[in-house]
Every structure is written in structure tokens, then in C-alpha cells.
Amino acid sequence: MGYLSFMICFLASVIGAICGIGGGVIIKPVLDAFEGMDTGTINFLSGCTVLSMTTYSVAKSKISGESHVKIRTGLPLAIGAAAGGIAGKWLFSLLEGMYEKPNVIGEIQAVCLCLITIGTLCYTVFKEKIKTHHVENSIVCAVIGAFLGIISSFLGIGGGPINLVVLFFFFSMSIKAAVENSLYIIFFSQLANLGCNIITKSVPNFTYHVLVWMVVGGILGGIVGRKINKKIDEETVNKLYLGLMVVIIVINICNIYKFHGME
User: Fold this and answer.
1) Three-state SS string across 111-156, please?
2) How many other CB atoms are there within 10 angstroms of residue 3's CB atom?
3) Which of 76, 95, 83 lies closest to 195, judged by CA?
4) What is the spatial distance between Cα 8 and Cα 31, in angstroms, rounded to a whole number?
5) Residue 171 has what pLDDT?
6) I need a surface site. Which of 131, 161, 214, 254 has the fewest CB within 10 A?
7) Alpha-carbon distance 135 to 165, whole Å?
8) What is the pLDDT of residues 105-129, one digit of tens each?
């Protein structure tokens, strides 16, 4: 499982760093498709992997001085994302306590992720016809960040495609600026989620060598993805993003069928 996890996380993080979706939106449903781990464990490991990748990407941008994150909007988004990350963890724990069978939670997550991805795909296809905004109010930014953080933490996906749609719509960002801001939001939401797991002593049981393989894959994927992102134009990033949405929808439909059949 270690080598397979490494390859999944590496490839997902390469694509995630290019498109600004964190990789977790691929890692989570793909690992769900295998029978090796329960939903809670996959959530935690996916979150740790996404955190490792975004840590590298955010740190590299800051150190190199190439960051497109504006403090006026980026800081409130990050603070909101951190609060949302804690709220998303609480929501997941609440549902985990309500259902004895973990496959029920897995099905709920798969349905949510599928619907979000379909909505995101529709928005992306028709975005040229949709009027966007330039939000600068700190409170509104924090609320938007909290919303994204809740989704990120609850679904264990880092942030996924919905981050970009929200950034396009509310802030009129270019694709590359949205990619960097998305990774910034994902970093803070997943950091808060991990901290919440540790403080509440709700870290699930897992095989440590699998986590190591996943984190290494996430970091290496982030390095490769960031280099590719700098070399390709925005149109190519957009095409890759659209193709990825279709793949994620198909995987989640398969997972919904799988989890439903286990009930």
C-alpha cells in the first residue's frame, strides 16, 4: 500500500500544484476506491499530504518573492480558512458519531464532492458569461475563507476545485493568481484541522510508513507541479483543470455506487 499511496499522492500533488486544487480532491476519492483504509483514516492522511504539499508551495512563493497573495484579502481568507478547518473537523466528528458504519460517511462525502465538482465544472465552462466581483471587505473575506475551510476539512480534500471558482467569482483573479491564493487557503485550513486532531486526541490509527510515503509523494509532487505551472500558459492550466473535473466526477460516481452497495 505504501508504494501505491506514494504514486497516487505524487501524481495528485503534481496536478494539484499546477491547478491550485491541493491534490486532496484526487487523493481522497482515489483512496476511497480501494478497500485498504476507512473513511476517517483516509481523511486524516489525505489532509496531512495536502498540508505537506501546500507548505512547500506557500513557503517557496514567499521566499522567492513571487507571491500573488495580497495581504489585504489573503490574510482574512487565511484566518477564516483556519476557523473553517476546525469547524469542518467538528462536523465530520459529529457525523462519525451518528453513523456506526463508516461507509455511510464515505457515501455522504462522495455525493457532496461530486455535486461540488459538477457545479464547479458548469461555472468554469460558462464563466466568461458570469459577472465577477472585487471583494475587499475583511469580514466578507474571512466568511468566504471559513466556508472554504469547512469544505476542505470536512471532505478531506484540501480545498479542491471550489476554491478556484470562489476566487474567480468574488475576487476576479486570473487562473494563476487564484491557484496561489487557493494553496494559501488550503495550507491554513489543513493546518488548523491537523492541530484540532492532535489537541482533541482524535488522530486515527494508521500505518506510519504509509503516511511517510504519502507526505514524501505530496512534497515531491508539489515541487514538480510548481515548476510545470511556471512554464505553461493559463489556457493550458485551464484545459487541464477542466479535464480533471470530469475525471473526479466519474471517480466519485463510482465511489457513491460502491459505498451504497456496502450498506
Assistant:
1) HHHHHHHHHHHHHHHHHHHCCCCCCCCHHHHHHHHHHHHHHHHHHC
2) 10
3) 83
4) 8
5) 93
6) 131
7) 14
8) 888 888 998 998 899 889 988 888 8
